[in-house]
Amino acid sequence: MTDLPTLREHLDAHGLAAKKSFGQHFLLDLNVTRKIVRLAGPFEGRCVVEVGPGPGGLTRALLESDAGKVVLVEKDPRFIPLLSELDDGSGRLKIVEGDALKVREAELVDGPAHLVSNLPYNVGTPLLIKWLTGPWRPYALTLMFQKEVAERVVAQVGDDAYGRLAVIAQATADARIVMHLPAAAFTPPPKVASAVVHLVPLANPPEPAMLKRLERVTAAAFGQRRKMLRSSLKTLGGGALCEAAGIEPDVRAETVDVAGFLRLAAALEPQAQ
Ligand code: SAM
């Protein structure tokens, strides 16, 4: 890594500038990317997947780490030649040009892997849901989001930010914010601050069918979050569903904890099949 140009020189050498349509806001300070990688690790020789490597600041830090393999998924083809220059030919780095929303991780890596990414803001939430509920299960996820999204992931019942994302994330993983970054840390700076969330999937997460039901219940309940559950969950069973789950039908979604939503999802059977 020591022979490489700085990240900025590398971008200039390839004539690359950030494109808004790809959600590109780069971290060009290796001290910052190394810190994120320290928070994500240790990897102890395991594989790490990075989505959206762009100019490769996080990638360089991952290659300096104890990751056994680093797999990159980048949608913008302009960055592939630059990223190829980080490859020392040992086979440790794999570069995939593709859309992370569409790739099947199980086809890119053997078994689980760590996920470490500074995510494009426009697809951060669907990617997180995919990784927490999909058939492929990562060891851990260390992901940069807009601060507001990070707060929605870790929000507790009663918090303003508590909603669907908090319920799905916390029903499947332990999640905490491990780092805050101001907009000025990025090139070009986005409009909002960012935060890194570290998530460790639960050893025994709900079954896929249960997660589907959880998504239905939370979509209905938080879709009309000002209404009482008996009304917002009307099409799913309303008051009777609440009763079966041991939840007061007169309360609003924001007062029901994750365990309560899991009981509602369980009670949804068999109508939701
Ligand atoms: N990791 C780099 C950094 O920290 O400097 C770049 C982060 S930038 C916020 C997001 C990156 O994700 C860009 O490189 C962008 O091209 C890429 N990207 C955007 N949408 C993507 C998608 N659907 N799949 C894979 N990569 C994507």
In words, what does this structure look like?
The protein has 273 residues and is an alpha/beta fold. The protein folds into two domains: 7-201, Rossmann fold (3-Layer(aba) Sandwich); 208-271, Helicase, Ruva Protein, domain 3 (Orthogonal Bundle). It contains twelve helices and seven strands. It has helices spanning 7-13, 30-40, 57-64, 80-84, 105-108, 124-133, 147-154, 164-172, 208-223, 229-232, 238-245, 258-267; strands at 47-51, 69-74, 93-97, 114-118, 140-146, 173-181, 194-201. It is elongated. The mean pLDDT is 95. Bound molecules: S-adenosylmethionine.
Q: Concise description?
A:
The chain has helices at residues 7-13, 30-40, 57-64, 80-84, 105-108, 124-133, 147-154, 164-172, 208-223, 229-232, 238-245, 258-267, and strands spanning 47-51, 69-74, 93-97, 114-118, 140-146, 173-181, 194-201. It has 273 residues and is of the alpha/beta class. A seven-stranded mixed sheet has the order 3-2-1-4-5-7-6.
List the helices and strands and how they pair.
Elements: H1 7-13, H2 30-40, E1 47-51, H3 57-64, E2 69-74, H4 80-84, E3 93-97, H5 105-108, E4 114-118, H6 124-133, E5 140-146, H7 147-154, H8 164-172, E6 173-181, E7 194-201, H9 208-223, H10 229-232, H11 238-245, H12 258-267
Parallel strand pairs: 1-2, 1-4, 2-3, 4-5
Antiparallel strand pairs: 5-7, 6-7
Helix pairs in contact: 2-3, 6-8, 8-12, 9-12, 11-12
The structure holds S-adenosylmethionine.
S-adenosylmethionine binds at residues 22-27, 51-55, 57-58, 73-76, 99-101, 118, 120, 123.
